[in-house]
TrEMBL record:
InterPro entries: Alkaline_phosphatase_core_sf (IPR017850), Phosphodiest/P_Trfase (IPR002591). Its EC number is 3.6.1.29. Its cofactor is Zn(2+). GO terms for cellular component: plasma membrane. It catalyses: P(1),P(3)-bis(5'-adenosyl) triphosphate + H2O = AMP + ADP + 2 H(+). Keywords: Blood coagulation, Cell membrane, Disulfide bond, Glycoprotein, Hemostasis, Hydrolase, Membrane, Metal-binding, Signal, Transmembrane, Transmembrane helix, Zinc. Belongs to the nucleotide pyrophosphatase/phosphodiesterase family. Its main location: membrane. GO terms for biological process: blood coagulation. The chain crosses the membrane at residues 407-430. It is an enzyme of class 3 (hydrolase). Hydrolyzes extracellular Ap3A into AMP and ADP, and Ap4A into AMP and ATP. Ap3A and Ap4A are diadenosine polyphosphates thought to induce proliferation of vascular smooth muscle cells. Acts as a procoagulant, mediating platelet aggregation at the site of nascent thrombus via release of ADP from Ap3A and activation of ADP receptors. This is bis(5'-adenosyl)-triphosphatase.
Length: 458
């Protein structure tokens, strides 16, 4: 092959591959979206156990191996981040137990229905209604609370005793009976409950719990299929956080370091929220020196990367235990497994899978941030985003309407084409050199032409 031609082919090839990158991102398919959370589904469970139903779900859709969630890696803060695209400091649901110093109100998981705690943000189920559609929910944290003066159109009051089957049944009923329902949220407590009770390292118990979770995914696909929704609606299955093994040997007892009369505990482990009753710097010093596996921060010094500082509900001193360590005041280990630790730890990350007309088929992505899910969902639903901390650019390639090519694939194709063309050129020249005395009329002419161009090849 002519060397100039080789360069031309390479350039053309590179250009054509690059050009598909700049797509028109207009989304026209506003199919309903069902968002499902299986609490405490650590990302790497996918590698250690078998999930035939979940595998079927994402092999025909999208799988994201790791979702970098928000600090603190607890259930309520992360479910609200998924629904708002905001870090905890910006949406106001900062922990399982909170205290507001201005109003002197308390928040606990069993007394969470005061709108005051939730109104610093607007969750997607409210935005969907503001856009003129209906939203429904089955026990997703916050969906039974009046937020911005609304609950979802249909919802179930939180009750941990209600089975997955019943929650799913109600959601599919609401979705299939009414076209104007555009968003549904479904929450289930497993495998979080088993992870806390037996510890994630108990593979016998985890295998049992994860088999049930996978069966529930199978039930979900079956029910959507039966109601004619499968393949027509978009479904996202994800989780709030992971889980790590705790141990009696990794216990931090505050009573060994500070007098209980010198502080109030708002939340305890693995991230403690502390209100000092003595000189804060004195208390801070004692807590800092308490245990090498626990870091103490004055509120102002909490690392920026945690996005856990700018809110009245964050207490003056925060203690953060190392992975797998437990903070108590005295006594033994409360739970064999826990979460809440630094959100840079892989053990704290969940996964994400998606299926439906909006999503690519067989697409796999290494990681996204959990705050990036919100702008993606708004895009799928065709509703405006509220200000948030995510970026649609990070997740858009999961969508079938977005023309994306992986940079790695582009580079791979270009290198591959280059190798093939170089080899062909080389073989071609070799052949020609082998037949110098050829009687073919044009042989000499070709060789001469090549000689002219030799400098190009040097
Ligand atoms: C994308 O395409 C649609 C229809 O083909 C068109 O109406 C719209 O203006 C385009 N948007 C952009 C940003 O080019
Ligand atoms: C629930 O929280 C509200 C507001 O923080 C408080 O006024 C009320 O007393 C709490 N109820 C219970 C039963 O603790
Ligand atoms: C959910 O569905 C069941 C029937 O399966 C029904 O009895 C129950 O009232 C529903 N719950 C809500 C909150 O609508
Ligand atoms: C897992 O938990 C079960 C039930 O408590 C217990 O019998 C078993 O020994 C545990 N296995 C491991 C490996 O910890
Ligand atoms: C949906 O139902 C049809 C007919 O019963 C079956 O062939 C198909 O495999 C089902 N699909 C899923 C995803 O369950
Ligand atoms: C804790 O502080 C109180 C009040 O300052 C004091 O009476 C008590 O002896 C202290 N306890 C310990 C164990 O130091
Ligand atoms: C997160 O988003 C909110 C709302 O736009 C904004 O106020 C806040 O500054 C953002 N946080 C960061 C770290 O950018
Ligand atoms: Zn939990």
């Amino acid at each position: 092959m002519h060397p100039k031609a080789l360069l031309f082919v390479l350039a053309a090839c590179y250009q054509s591959v690059i050009s598909v990158n700049t797509g028109n991102g207009t989304q026209k398919d506003f199919s309903p979206l069902l968002l499902v959370s299986f609490d405490g589904f650590r990302a790497d469970y996918l590698n250690s156990y078998t999930f035939p139903h979940l595998h079927k779900f994402f092999s025909d859709g999208v799988l994201v191996d790791q979702v970098t969630n928000v600090f603190i890696t607890k259930t309520f803060p992360n479910h609200y981040s998924l629904a708002t695209g905001l870090y905890a400091e910006s949406h106001g649901i900062l922990a399982s137990h909170m205290y507001d110093p201005l109003t002197k109100k308390d928040f606990t998981l069993h007394n969470d229905s005061d709108p005051f705690w939730w109104n610093e943000a607007t969750p997607i189920w409210v935005s969907v209604q503001e856009s003129g559609y209906k939203s429904v929910a089955a026990m997703w944290p916050g969906t039974d609370v009046m937020i911005q003066n609304r609950t979802p159109t249909h919802f179930m009051k939180y009750n941990g005793k209600v089975s997955f089957r019943e929650r799913l049944g109600n959601v599919t009923k609401w979705l299939s009976e009414d076209d104007s329902v555009k968003f549904a949220a479904l929450y289930w407590e497993e495998p979080d409950y088993t992870g806390h009770t037996y510890g994630p390292d108990n593979t016998t118990e985890m295998a049992k719990a994860l088999k049930k979770v996978d069966d529930d995914v199978g039930l979900l696909m079956e029910q959507l299929n039966q109601t004619g929704l499968w393949g027509k609606i978009n479904v996202i299955i994800t989780s709030d956080h992971g889980m790590v093994q705790c141990s009696q040997g990794r216990l931090i007892q505050l009573d060994q370091c500070v007098n209980r009369s010198s502080y109030i505990v708002v939340d305890l482990t693995p991230v403690a929220a502390i209100i000092p009753l003595i000189e804060p710097s004195d208390l801070y010093k004692k807590l800092s020196n308490c245990n090498t596996h626990m870091k103490a921060y004055m509120k102002d010094a909490i690392p920026d990367r945690l996005h856990y500082k700018n809110n009245e509900r964050i207490q003056p001193i925060i203690l953060v235990a190392d992975e797998g360590w437990t903070i108590v005041q005295q006594g033994g280990l409360p739970r064999l497994g826990d979460h809440g630790y630094d959100n840079s730890l892989r053990s704290m990350h969940p996964f994400l899978a998606a299926h439906g007309p909006a999503f690519r088929k067989g697409y796999r992505k290494e990681s996204i941030n959990s705050v990036d899910l919100y702008p993606l969902m708004c895009h799928i639903l065709g509703i405006p985003e509220k200000p948030n901390n995510g970026s649609f650019a990070h997740t858009r390639c999961m969508l079938v309407t977005e023309k994306c090519t992986d940079l790695a694939v582009v580079v791979g194709i270009v290198i591959g084409v280059f190798i093939v063309l170089t080899t062909i050129t080389f073989l071609f020249r070799l052949m020609k050199n082998r037949e110098p005395s050829s009687s073919r009329p044009f042989a000499r002419l070709e060789l001469q032409e090549d000689d002219d161009d030799d400098p190009l090849l040097d």
